[in-house]
Amino acid sequence: MARIDVEKAIEELTLGEKVALTAGRDFWHTESVPRLNIPALRMSDGPNGVRGTRFFNGIPAACFPCATALGATWDTELLSEVGALMGEEAIAKGTHVVLGPTINTQRSPLGGRGFESFSEDGVLSGTLAGYFCKAMQEKGVAATLKHFVCNDQEHERLAVSSILTNRALREIYLMPFQLAMRICRSQCIMTAYNKVNGTHVSENKAIIDDILRKEWGWEGVVMSDWFGTYSTSDAIVAGLDIEMPGKTRWRGEALAHAVSSNKVAQYQLDERVRNILNLVNWVEPLGIPEGAPEKALNRPEDQALMRRAAAESVVLLKNEGDILPLKKDGSLLVIGPNAKIAAYCGGGSASLAPYYTVTPFDGVSAKSKGEVKYSQGVYSHKDLPLLGPLLKTADGKPGFTFKVYNEHPNSGEDRQAVDELHLLESSGFLMDYVNPKVKSMTYYVDMEGTFTPEESGVYNFGVTVVGTGQLLIDGEVVVDNTKNQKQGSAFFGTATIEEIGTKELKAGQTYKVLFQFGSAPTSDLDTRGIVAFGPGGFRFGASRQVGQEELIANAVEQAKTAEQVVIFAGLTLEWETEGHDREHMDLPPGSDELISRVLEVNPNAVVMIQSGTPVTMPWADNAKALVQAWFGGNECGSGIADVLYGDVNPSAKLPITFPRRLQDNPSYLNFRSERGRVLYGEDIYVGYRYFEKSDVAPGFAFGHGLSYTSFSRSDLRIDTVPEQTKYTESGEPVTASVTVSNTGSVAGAEIVQLWIVPPKTDVGRPVRELKAFQKVFLQPGETKTVQLVVEKKLATSWWDEEREQWISEEGTYQVLVTGTGAEELHGEFEVGKTRFWLGL
Ligand code: BGC
């Protein structure tokens, strides 16, 4: 790749070439123009790892803790380290542009992708995103803030119009983007699927051109979300530079025609092309050639960082009687559905094949010097556990063969496989599976292996497909998911529900398993309103039928006499995933009963929940020790064990409010698409802003998190600079200095939080708003002075819809400084004169 003379190239490019540059070439690449040495760029998801070019059968990658986990660290330095490693991971995957971070806002605990965004609060989310992007871009890799803006639910995500006031748009939903950009101008922005107040964002001039480009002065590339372009001229004119993915649906000939007929002016097309060529130049120093091979890094120092990130994200919610940390030389009973599975990431485009994973059970077993016992308690899967890892190929390897054919199994023709793979996971989304020998989108795959059950009994077998699928055991059809298919939620909401069949099997006997799959066009499911992601996907699973009572009773019996007990419950990528919101806030069936009954017989049992977003905890008052972990990436189990055994002192704080009940959350009345729109009825009162204003007690508040040590805060001092007539870019810092001491007996980190309480005015304002935060590490007895700086205009302003400007009103503003524990320090500063402003 050599640098391009952008203006010269714009003169030399033909209309056809310019048009081609404005759309993807395939799922993960932009278009090239070899004649002018303009290369294709590679893009890759995403928020918690860099997957590379293959969803299906991809090269393994580092999986970082999900964004709510990183949000819980409140640690800008850690986010910089994570961003830098993400940049290196991108380079290893030959990627120029990373499709992340995600900084939408968790209006509701139910958002299917809530786990992908850092926080319900724009200051926390935007600041962390800014440092993450800065470090990644310092490695030369372009970051993409997404999804711009108000993609805060999955229900009808392409079609729904988010109806909200300009005040909420500015103060809540645009705020993370604005603040991230103040720290780092990300090279790319991805538009949201949805409409905002009636117009799809990908063709919304008011949002792309007026706010992003003109008001914020941002000059990067705007790309659509995948299949989120819905027009030719409107999108180009509004400023959507690239339609993704390819092949184009809206550009190509349609755009050439629009330019020829002057629906799109030549200069407008040139503006799009200029942005794209500037991006090509920006990533040029990476020296990544077209079609670069994809490699795995997986270095020891990266594993150490992932482990630190996982541990630093674990939030200690309760610890009555100092039950935690656990004693290493004591024995331990591990109970629960999440103990022996690694809930390492959420579902959808955030998911990827990890280098490796560590389950919580593995994590605690590696640390305990005493006996570690295990009882399942209940299962938490939504669909049956994958059967693939339990199968064996003809030559005895774990897994199964995957043979691809152009012809239907019953075509009568002599079928020749056009590809043969060996797979372990019996779940695959084929959208980016490329094979030149496959003649059309309609093709067939036979997946074959043998299964030798360890226990006799009746087994359930399940099949979920985007396409059609039949599961045969020893030639007998056990599950037929080819006809009368019903819409389900897997694979971005494009798959059928899981069809289940049963068969009695004998322990030790070997059965031949054949799964026959037909790609998406073989299905007659009516998928109107759902984006078709290529040739489809498959999933098949199995488990022996066992009574829940039997499992719970076993766990309870063992818990009665156990010395130390930890229950691992929570959600997985099946429950929190893209294309589908959660239906309720509860744990999977049986988990609450398990936890309650174990706590009855052993009140000291520690409850550890893994989820990306809040769950209801009806037993919370009875739990003395309660811990929230998230989808913690490769090292999730080790990070959890580090905290449980006290090798890491927990310092994380909740980045989102945990309501007691779903009904208590402010979006309860308005969280789905109804007749094409969703009303953001809670306005600016999202998350803690609502709970504090209406005095509704949350289960656990935003910012809450305990430590194994204690801290004190004192000597708050506020310094300001003289006010100018107008707010300027250089700003007017308000600096809060505070003394923080570790008053306990173990080392630990404190997160100091600075809030502003506005003066009374004639508009409604939140009780207080977070404006700055700082993490500080202290040895026992150590004291440090921490400085928190916030610009006066950002500390004080709200969005005035009458003037369509930010207003910073005159008056006295209180400063609150908080941290672990209830102690609050108070200070104040003045705004002498009301001022209005626009910009970043
Ligand atoms: C998601 C994006 C993602 C893209 C590519 C879409 O479904 O909304 O966040 O980057 O797919 O995987």
From TrEMBL:
- Give Gene Ontology CC terms: extracellular region
Q: Which GO terms describe its biological process?
A: cellulose catabolic process
Q: Looking at the keywords, is Secreted present?
A: yes
Check the record and name the SUPFAM superfamilies matching this protein. Answer: (Trans)glycosidases, Beta-D-glucan exohydrolase, C-terminal domain
Key words of the record: Carbohydrate metabolism, Cellulose degradation, Glycoprotein, Glycosidase, Hydrolase, Polysaccharide degradation, Secreted
The subcellular location is: Secreted
- Look up the EC number in the record and give it: 3.2.1.21
Question: What sort of enzyme, by top EC class, is this?
Answer: hydrolase
Which sequence ranges are marked TM in the entry? Answer: none
The pathway is:
Glycan metabolism; cellulose degradation
Question: Which residue numbers delimit the PA14 domain?
Answer: 395-556
Catalytic activity as recorded in UniProt: Hydrolysis of terminal, non-reducing beta-D-glucosyl residues with release of beta-D-glucose
GO terms (molecular function) for this protein are: beta-glucosidase activity
Checking InterPro entries in the record gives:
Cellulose_deg_GH3, Fn3-like, GH, Glyco_hydro_3_AS, Glyco_hydro_3_C, Glyco_hydro_3_C_sf, Glyco_hydro_3_N, Glyco_hydro_3_N_sf
- Pfam families the record matches: Fn3-like (PF14310), Glyco_hydro_3 (PF00933), Glyco_hydro_3_C (PF01915), PA14 (PF07691)
Q: Which family does the UniProt entry place this protein in?
A: Belongs to the glycosyl hydrolase 3 family.
Protein known as: beta-glucosidase
